[in-house]
Design goal:
Layout: H1 7-11, H2 16-31, H3 36-58, H4 67-82, H5 88-110, H6 115-135, H7 137-140, E1 146-147, H8 165-186, H9 189-199, H10 201-206, H11 211-237, E2 239-240, H12 247-260, H13 266-285, H14 290-304, H15 308-325
Antiparallel strand pairs: 1-2
Helix pairs in contact: 2-8, 3-8, 3-11, 3-12, 3-13, 4-5, 4-11, 5-11, 8-11, 9-11, 12-13, 12-15, 13-14
Length: about 325
Amino acid sequence: MSAPRSAFLERQRLGFPELLWWLLALGFFFVFPEYLAVATSVLVMALFAVSLDLLLGFAGIITLGHAVSFGIGAYACALLNLSGWHEAITGALAGGTASGIFALAVGPLILRLSGLPFIMVTLGIGAILYEAANKAVWLTGGDNGLPGVTLDPLLGVFRWTVFGQTGFLYVLGWLFVLFYATRRIVASPFGLALQGIRENPHRMRLVGAPVLRHLVLAYAIGCFIAGIAGALSAQTNRFVGLEVLGLNTSIDGLVMLVLGGIGRLYGGLLGAPVYMFVQHFAQQWNPYYWMFLIGGLLILVVRFSRRGLLGLLEDLLTQAGRRLRR
Protein backbone atom coordinates (compact mmCIF):
# COMPACT_ATOMS: atom_id res chain seq x y z
CA MET A 1 0.00 0.00 0.00
CA SER A 2 1.51 3.32 -1.08
CA ALA A 3 1.94 6.16 1.38
CA PRO A 4 -0.56 9.04 1.07
CA ARG A 5 0.75 12.11 -0.69
CA SER A 6 0.77 15.43 1.12
CA ALA A 7 -1.51 18.25 0.01
CA PHE A 8 1.54 20.26 -1.06
CA LEU A 9 2.85 17.46 -3.26
CA GLU A 10 -0.59 17.07 -4.81
CA ARG A 11 -0.69 20.79 -5.54
CA GLN A 12 2.58 20.56 -7.45
CA ARG A 13 1.22 17.96 -9.87
CA LEU A 14 0.62 19.33 -13.37
CA GLY A 15 -3.15 19.52 -13.84
CA PHE A 16 -5.13 20.16 -16.98
CA PRO A 17 -6.03 23.80 -16.11
CA GLU A 18 -2.33 24.59 -15.84
CA LEU A 19 -1.76 23.34 -19.36
CA LEU A 20 -3.86 26.26 -20.59
CA TRP A 21 -0.94 28.65 -20.00
CA TRP A 22 1.31 26.61 -22.27
CA LEU A 23 -1.44 26.19 -24.87
CA LEU A 24 -2.03 29.94 -24.86
CA ALA A 25 1.70 30.51 -25.34
CA LEU A 26 1.71 28.22 -28.37
CA GLY A 27 -1.46 29.86 -29.65
CA PHE A 28 0.18 33.28 -29.38
CA PHE A 29 2.88 32.05 -31.76
CA PHE A 30 0.29 31.50 -34.51
CA VAL A 31 -2.18 34.31 -33.77
CA PHE A 32 0.18 37.23 -33.11
CA PRO A 33 3.31 36.65 -35.21
CA GLU A 34 4.02 40.38 -35.34
CA TYR A 35 4.54 40.49 -31.56
CA LEU A 36 6.89 37.53 -31.21
CA ALA A 37 9.91 39.70 -30.36
CA VAL A 38 8.07 41.26 -27.42
CA ALA A 39 6.65 37.89 -26.39
CA THR A 40 10.13 36.35 -26.39
CA SER A 41 11.30 39.01 -23.93
CA VAL A 42 8.25 38.20 -21.80
CA LEU A 43 9.22 34.52 -21.72
CA VAL A 44 12.78 35.40 -20.73
CA MET A 45 11.56 37.53 -17.83
CA ALA A 46 9.06 34.85 -16.84
CA LEU A 47 11.98 32.43 -16.47
CA PHE A 48 13.84 35.06 -14.44
CA ALA A 49 10.78 35.48 -12.20
CA VAL A 50 10.53 31.71 -11.70
CA SER A 51 14.17 31.61 -10.57
CA LEU A 52 13.50 34.44 -8.12
CA ASP A 53 10.39 32.67 -6.83
CA LEU A 54 12.48 29.62 -5.97
CA LEU A 55 14.64 31.83 -3.73
CA LEU A 56 12.04 34.19 -2.32
CA GLY A 57 8.86 32.14 -2.30
CA PHE A 58 10.25 28.78 -1.20
CA ALA A 59 13.61 29.37 0.51
CA GLY A 60 12.77 32.77 1.98
CA ILE A 61 15.91 34.37 0.50
CA ILE A 62 14.98 38.04 0.04
CA THR A 63 17.42 39.60 -2.41
CA LEU A 64 17.66 42.81 -4.40
CA GLY A 65 20.68 41.60 -6.33
CA HIS A 66 19.22 38.77 -8.39
CA ALA A 67 20.04 40.73 -11.54
CA VAL A 68 23.68 39.85 -10.87
CA SER A 69 22.97 36.24 -11.87
CA PHE A 70 21.01 37.40 -14.91
CA GLY A 71 23.82 39.70 -15.98
CA ILE A 72 26.62 37.19 -15.41
CA GLY A 73 24.77 34.67 -17.55
CA ALA A 74 24.20 37.24 -20.29
CA TYR A 75 27.82 38.45 -20.38
CA ALA A 76 29.27 34.94 -20.13
CA CYS A 77 27.15 33.73 -23.03
CA ALA A 78 27.92 36.81 -25.15
CA LEU A 79 31.67 36.63 -24.51
CA LEU A 80 31.72 32.93 -25.37
CA ASN A 81 29.77 33.66 -28.53
CA LEU A 82 32.02 36.53 -29.61
CA SER A 83 35.05 34.30 -29.07
CA GLY A 84 33.74 31.96 -31.76
CA TRP A 85 31.27 29.57 -30.10
CA HIS A 86 27.90 30.02 -31.83
CA GLU A 87 25.90 26.98 -30.70
CA ALA A 88 22.83 28.21 -28.81
CA ILE A 89 21.98 25.49 -26.26
CA THR A 90 25.49 24.98 -24.92
CA GLY A 91 25.98 28.75 -24.89
CA ALA A 92 22.93 29.14 -22.65
CA LEU A 93 24.17 26.36 -20.39
CA ALA A 94 27.54 28.10 -20.15
CA GLY A 95 25.83 31.31 -19.01
CA GLY A 96 23.82 29.43 -16.39
CA THR A 97 26.91 27.58 -15.18
CA ALA A 98 28.85 30.82 -14.76
CA SER A 99 26.07 32.24 -12.60
CA GLY A 100 25.79 29.03 -10.61
CA ILE A 101 29.53 28.97 -9.90
CA PHE A 102 29.41 32.60 -8.76
CA ALA A 103 26.53 31.72 -6.41
CA LEU A 104 28.44 28.77 -4.97
CA ALA A 105 31.43 31.06 -4.36
CA VAL A 106 29.60 33.86 -2.56
CA GLY A 107 26.66 31.92 -1.14
CA PRO A 108 28.40 30.37 1.90
CA LEU A 109 29.52 33.86 2.92
CA ILE A 110 26.44 36.02 2.37
CA LEU A 111 23.78 33.45 3.30
CA ARG A 112 25.00 33.51 6.90
CA LEU A 113 23.16 36.83 7.00
CA SER A 114 19.42 37.34 6.88
CA GLY A 115 16.87 40.12 6.74
CA LEU A 116 18.02 43.67 6.08
CA PRO A 117 21.79 42.94 6.27
CA PHE A 118 21.45 40.28 3.57
CA ILE A 119 19.36 42.59 1.38
CA MET A 120 21.95 45.36 1.65
CA VAL A 121 24.84 42.98 0.90
CA THR A 122 23.13 41.69 -2.26
CA LEU A 123 22.39 45.28 -3.25
CA GLY A 124 26.04 46.17 -2.72
CA ILE A 125 27.29 43.20 -4.77
CA GLY A 126 25.01 44.26 -7.59
CA ALA A 127 26.27 47.85 -7.48
CA ILE A 128 29.91 46.72 -7.46
CA LEU A 129 29.49 44.39 -10.44
CA TYR A 130 27.51 47.00 -12.36
CA GLU A 131 30.26 49.58 -11.92
CA ALA A 132 32.95 47.00 -12.67
CA ALA A 133 31.22 46.12 -15.94
CA ASN A 134 30.92 49.80 -16.73
CA LYS A 135 34.65 50.38 -16.23
CA ALA A 136 35.90 47.17 -17.89
CA VAL A 137 35.33 48.49 -21.39
CA TRP A 138 37.92 46.08 -22.82
CA LEU A 139 35.79 43.14 -21.67
CA THR A 140 32.15 44.24 -21.46
CA GLY A 141 32.09 47.18 -23.84
CA GLY A 142 31.03 49.52 -21.03
CA ASP A 143 28.12 51.76 -21.99
CA ASN A 144 28.28 50.48 -25.57
CA GLY A 145 27.65 46.89 -24.49
CA LEU A 146 28.44 43.79 -26.50
CA PRO A 147 26.70 43.79 -29.91
CA GLY A 148 27.06 41.24 -32.66
CA VAL A 149 25.93 38.01 -30.96
CA THR A 150 25.28 35.52 -33.78
CA LEU A 151 24.04 31.94 -33.59
CA ASP A 152 24.25 28.87 -35.77
CA PRO A 153 20.94 27.32 -36.89
CA LEU A 154 19.23 25.76 -33.89
CA LEU A 155 19.85 21.98 -33.87
CA GLY A 156 21.50 22.55 -37.25
CA VAL A 157 18.09 23.06 -38.90
CA PHE A 158 16.14 26.11 -37.67
CA ARG A 159 17.58 29.45 -38.73
CA TRP A 160 17.26 32.58 -36.63
CA THR A 161 15.19 35.28 -38.31
CA VAL A 162 14.34 38.90 -37.57
CA PHE A 163 10.70 37.86 -37.11
CA GLY A 164 11.56 35.82 -34.02
CA GLN A 165 9.83 32.49 -34.71
CA THR A 166 12.84 30.36 -33.80
CA GLY A 167 13.74 32.55 -30.83
CA PHE A 168 10.22 32.37 -29.38
CA LEU A 169 9.96 28.58 -29.55
CA TYR A 170 13.55 28.20 -28.34
CA VAL A 171 12.94 30.29 -25.22
CA LEU A 172 9.54 28.65 -24.65
CA GLY A 173 11.23 25.24 -24.71
CA TRP A 174 13.80 26.35 -22.15
CA LEU A 175 11.06 27.82 -19.97
CA PHE A 176 9.05 24.59 -20.03
CA VAL A 177 12.03 22.37 -19.19
CA LEU A 178 13.33 24.56 -16.37
CA PHE A 179 9.86 25.23 -14.99
CA TYR A 180 9.13 21.50 -14.84
CA ALA A 181 12.51 20.89 -13.17
CA THR A 182 11.78 23.62 -10.62
CA ARG A 183 8.38 22.08 -9.86
CA ARG A 184 10.08 18.77 -9.19
CA ILE A 185 12.59 20.46 -6.90
CA VAL A 186 10.02 22.29 -4.76
CA ALA A 187 7.88 19.15 -4.47
CA SER A 188 10.85 17.05 -3.33
CA PRO A 189 11.97 16.53 0.29
CA PHE A 190 14.63 19.16 -0.39
CA GLY A 191 11.93 21.62 -1.43
CA LEU A 192 9.88 20.89 1.67
CA ALA A 193 12.99 21.40 3.80
CA LEU A 194 13.49 24.81 2.15
CA GLN A 195 9.98 25.81 3.16
CA GLY A 196 10.67 24.70 6.69
CA ILE A 197 13.80 26.87 6.70
CA ARG A 198 11.77 29.77 5.33
CA GLU A 199 9.24 29.44 8.15
CA ASN A 200 11.62 28.74 11.06
CA PRO A 201 15.34 28.20 10.39
CA HIS A 202 16.13 27.81 14.11
CA ARG A 203 13.73 24.90 14.49
CA MET A 204 15.14 23.27 11.36
CA ARG A 205 18.61 23.46 12.88
CA LEU A 206 17.29 21.80 16.04
CA VAL A 207 15.96 18.83 14.07
CA GLY A 208 19.36 18.44 12.39
CA ALA A 209 18.73 19.99 8.97
CA PRO A 210 21.85 21.48 7.29
CA VAL A 211 20.29 24.93 6.91
CA LEU A 212 23.24 26.76 5.35
CA ARG A 213 23.96 23.93 2.91
CA HIS A 214 20.32 23.83 1.79
CA LEU A 215 20.24 27.60 1.33
CA VAL A 216 23.48 27.63 -0.67
CA LEU A 217 22.21 24.85 -2.92
CA ALA A 218 18.88 26.62 -3.47
CA TYR A 219 20.73 29.88 -4.15
CA ALA A 220 22.98 28.17 -6.70
CA ILE A 221 20.01 26.55 -8.47
CA GLY A 222 18.08 29.83 -8.59
CA CYS A 223 21.13 31.70 -9.90
CA PHE A 224 21.78 28.97 -12.48
CA ILE A 225 18.24 29.39 -13.85
CA ALA A 226 18.56 33.19 -13.78
CA GLY A 227 21.87 32.88 -15.63
CA ILE A 228 20.21 30.85 -18.36
CA ALA A 229 17.52 33.54 -18.59
CA GLY A 230 20.26 36.14 -19.04
CA ALA A 231 21.95 34.01 -21.69
CA LEU A 232 18.65 33.65 -23.55
CA SER A 233 18.25 37.42 -23.43
CA ALA A 234 21.70 37.87 -24.97
CA GLN A 235 21.01 35.30 -27.68
CA THR A 236 17.58 36.55 -28.71
CA ASN A 237 18.45 40.27 -28.51
CA ARG A 238 21.92 39.70 -30.01
CA PHE A 239 23.19 42.34 -27.61
CA VAL A 240 24.14 42.69 -23.94
CA GLY A 241 24.11 46.04 -22.18
CA LEU A 242 24.75 47.24 -18.65
CA GLU A 243 21.03 47.15 -17.83
CA VAL A 244 21.21 43.38 -17.37
CA LEU A 245 23.12 44.04 -14.13
CA GLY A 246 21.00 47.01 -13.07
CA LEU A 247 18.82 47.28 -9.99
CA ASN A 248 15.78 47.83 -12.22
CA THR A 249 16.09 44.27 -13.51
CA SER A 250 15.91 42.89 -9.96
CA ILE A 251 12.97 45.16 -9.13
CA ASP A 252 11.14 44.15 -12.32
CA GLY A 253 11.43 40.49 -11.34
CA LEU A 254 10.16 41.23 -7.83
CA VAL A 255 7.19 43.24 -9.13
CA MET A 256 6.29 40.42 -11.51
CA LEU A 257 6.24 37.98 -8.61
CA VAL A 258 4.12 40.26 -6.42
CA LEU A 259 1.65 40.76 -9.27
CA GLY A 260 1.41 37.08 -10.12
CA GLY A 261 1.74 35.58 -6.64
CA ILE A 262 4.82 34.67 -4.59
CA GLY A 263 5.53 31.05 -3.75
CA ARG A 264 3.39 29.53 -6.49
CA LEU A 265 5.82 29.27 -9.46
CA TYR A 266 2.95 30.02 -11.83
CA GLY A 267 2.87 33.47 -10.27
CA GLY A 268 5.97 34.37 -12.25
CA LEU A 269 4.46 33.02 -15.45
CA LEU A 270 1.34 35.11 -14.89
CA GLY A 271 2.99 38.23 -13.51
CA ALA A 272 5.61 38.57 -16.26
CA PRO A 273 3.20 38.89 -19.23
CA VAL A 274 0.82 41.14 -17.28
CA TYR A 275 3.61 43.47 -16.17
CA MET A 276 5.45 43.62 -19.49
CA PHE A 277 2.40 44.00 -21.72
CA VAL A 278 0.94 46.69 -19.45
CA GLN A 279 4.34 48.37 -19.51
CA HIS A 280 4.54 48.10 -23.31
CA PHE A 281 1.14 49.62 -23.99
CA ALA A 282 1.41 52.18 -21.16
CA GLN A 283 4.66 53.47 -22.65
CA GLN A 284 2.90 53.86 -25.98
CA TRP A 285 0.08 55.71 -24.23
CA ASN A 286 2.42 58.05 -22.34
CA PRO A 287 6.20 57.61 -22.48
CA TYR A 288 6.74 59.88 -19.44
CA TYR A 289 4.10 58.85 -16.89
CA TRP A 290 3.55 55.18 -17.68
CA MET A 291 4.80 54.16 -14.22
CA PHE A 292 1.63 55.62 -12.72
CA LEU A 293 -0.34 52.84 -14.37
CA ILE A 294 2.10 50.15 -13.20
CA GLY A 295 2.04 51.55 -9.66
CA GLY A 296 -1.75 51.69 -9.60
CA LEU A 297 -2.01 48.10 -10.81
CA LEU A 298 0.44 46.94 -8.15
CA ILE A 299 -1.47 48.77 -5.39
CA LEU A 300 -4.78 47.25 -6.48
CA VAL A 301 -3.40 43.72 -6.60
CA VAL A 302 -1.72 44.00 -3.19
CA ARG A 303 -4.83 45.65 -1.69
CA PHE A 304 -7.35 43.06 -2.83
CA SER A 305 -5.24 39.90 -2.95
CA ARG A 306 -2.04 39.32 -1.00
CA ARG A 307 -1.55 36.17 -3.08
CA GLY A 308 -1.37 38.16 -6.32
CA LEU A 309 -3.40 37.77 -9.47
CA LEU A 310 -3.19 33.99 -9.21
CA GLY A 311 -4.75 34.08 -5.74
CA LEU A 312 -7.38 36.55 -6.95
CA LEU A 313 -8.33 34.22 -9.80
CA GLU A 314 -8.55 31.28 -7.42
CA ASP A 315 -10.81 33.26 -5.07
CA LEU A 316 -13.11 34.27 -7.93
CA LEU A 317 -13.33 30.68 -9.19
CA THR A 318 -14.06 29.43 -5.67
CA GLN A 319 -16.84 31.97 -5.21
CA ALA A 320 -18.29 31.11 -8.61
CA GLY A 321 -18.23 27.40 -7.74
CA ARG A 322 -20.07 28.03 -4.47
CA ARG A 323 -22.77 30.03 -6.24
CA LEU A 324 -23.23 27.28 -8.82
CA ARG A 325 -23.60 24.66 -6.09
CA ARG A 326 -26.31 26.75 -4.45
